[in-house]
Write a structure and sequence with these properties.
This protein has 397 residues and is an alpha/beta fold. The chain has helices at 4-18, 21-46, 206-212, 244-264, 295-307, 318-326, 344-355, 372-381, 391-395; strands at 48-54, 59-60, 65-74, 80-88, 98-105, 110-118, 123-127, 130-134, 144-147, 151-155, 183-194, 216-223, 228-232, 270-278, 283-292, 334-339, 359-365, 385-388. Strand 17 (359-365), helix 8 and strand 18 form a beta-alpha-beta unit. The longest helix has 26 residues, at 21-46. The chain starts with a helix and ends with a helix.
């Protein structure tokens, strides 16, 4: 009762004015019940604990179900006549988008509740806040509540099993002929040459030196980098307007599948570069994950792809972004460019990257029908182009 305190004061003044003992007894009774109810409720809310636990942790893949367990515990000695627990949830994971229970808790009692979240699609989903509310039986004191902080569930993008991508990746130990080798593979000897001032003693080929009678050093085959960088375009202006959501999601599936294939099948390093809206910062940011090997790095890439959302306010045009990202890459690295259309500015950027020594592969997601100029431009660039329309097309690459 919100106005019980003013009522008690009013009754007390009336009892003083009329000098009737019965009114004083009523005032004392109401005042005592009101104070007791407030103290009991405040004690109860301070000794309430709630915890949320996900059986799969805070990571999942599309199609998986996540069982959530809520633990509600009364750490105090006084019983609580009623406690309402309310968990706010994303509508994409469960319907209705909340979980609510009202229970009675004895002193030191704990109760558990479970519900299931179904991960239909990738995303970065907030869970909570988890709200607790309690009060007295008669409703004399105001109800008290408390909230816990939000937790987050990351649903990774769909990852397809790809047997062959058909992309120009090269092993760091399988060399390509280069006019200006940047480094050499010490495990691949292609011959010997006479010793010159400045050569390291470690390069001396002692067997060949003994046979020829002159000091010879080993010649190593030139090696190039074999890392790959997935460059994902998430600018909504570069995808077809009528199917923009499907196209962007397909581009993200392609990026995740390629990264998974490079790491798990090719055993090579892969990175990710994109400009997208990050729900953590509620702004468009640039994600730059340098190429590395290992499952841990792959999961970092998948987490970024789970959070990334399309944007219409990219910090810089996608072709300029490609040029910028290439500055930190080793010579010979493979750039896998994923976008929705091939523009003249993009072709110029790809030509520049080819001239500077990078291998390029272009994947167009739901692109418009190629014109004669587009086909001619692709032939001049000598860049393999894959056009993807649906997930089954990715499996055929």
């Amino acid at each position: 009762m919100e106005y019980l305190a003013p009522i008690i004061i009013g009754l007390f003044l009336l009892a003083v004015f009329l000098r009737i003992d019965f009114y004083f007894h009523v005032v004392y009774l109401l005042a005592g019940a009101y104070v007791l109810a407030r103290l009991w409720t405040r004690y109860g809310i301070q000794h309430l604990e709630a915890q949320r636990r996900l059986d799969r942790g805070d990571r999942a893949f599309p199609g998986e179900s996540v069982a959530v367990e809520l633990r509600l515990r009364n750490t105090g000695r006084l019983p609580l006549p009623w406690v309402e627990i309310h968990d706010s949830l994303p509508v994409d994971l469960i319907s209705p988008p909340f979980y609510r229970e009202v229970v009675t808790l004895k002193g030191k009692e704990e109760q558990r509740f479970t519900y299931t979240l179904t991960c239909y699609k990738r995303g970065y989903y907030p869970l909570g806040p988890l709200s607790l509310q309690t009060g007295d039986v008669l409703g004399l004191a105001p109800d008290l509540s408390r909230r816990s902080q939000r937790e987050y569930l990351i649903v990774y993008p769909r990852v397809l099993s790809l047997e062959k991508l058909g992309l120009p990746t090269h092993s760091p130990l399988a060399q390509l002929p280069t006019p200006t080798p940047l480094f050499e593979d010490p495990t691949n000897i292609i011959g010997v040459r006479p010793y010159m001032a400045g050569d390291s003693p470690r390069r001396i080929h002692w067997t060949a030196t003994a046979n020829s009678g002159q000091l010879l050093v080993k010649r190593y085959r030139a090696a190039i980098a074999r890392e790959s960088l997935v460059c994902l375009d998430l600018d909504m202006n570069d995808y077809p307007t009528r199917r923009i959501y499907d196209a962007v999601e397909l581009a993200i599936v392609a990026s995740a599948s390629i990264a998974n294939h490079v790491v798990n099948q090719e055993r090579l390093g892969v990175g990710l570069a994109t400009q997208a809206v990050d729900p953590l910062q509620d702004a468009t940011v640039q994600f730059s994950l340098p190429p590395h090997r290992g499952r841990a790095h792959l999961m970092n890439i998948l987490e970024v792809l789970a959070r990334a959302q399309m944007t219409d306010k990219a910090p810089q045009p996608f072709p300029d972004f490609l040029r910028k990202e290439s500055l930190a890459l080793p010579w010979g690295c493979t750039l896998i460019v994923i976008t929705g259309c091939e523009t003249e500015a993009l072709s110029d950027a790809l030509a520049y990257l080819r001239r500077t020594g990078f291998a390029i592969a272009l994947i167009l997601v739901m692109p418009p029908a190629p014109g004669a100029d587009t086909t001619q431009r692709g032939a001049l660039l000598n860049v393999p182009v894959h056009r993807v329309w649906q997930e089954t097309a990715l499996e055929a690459l």
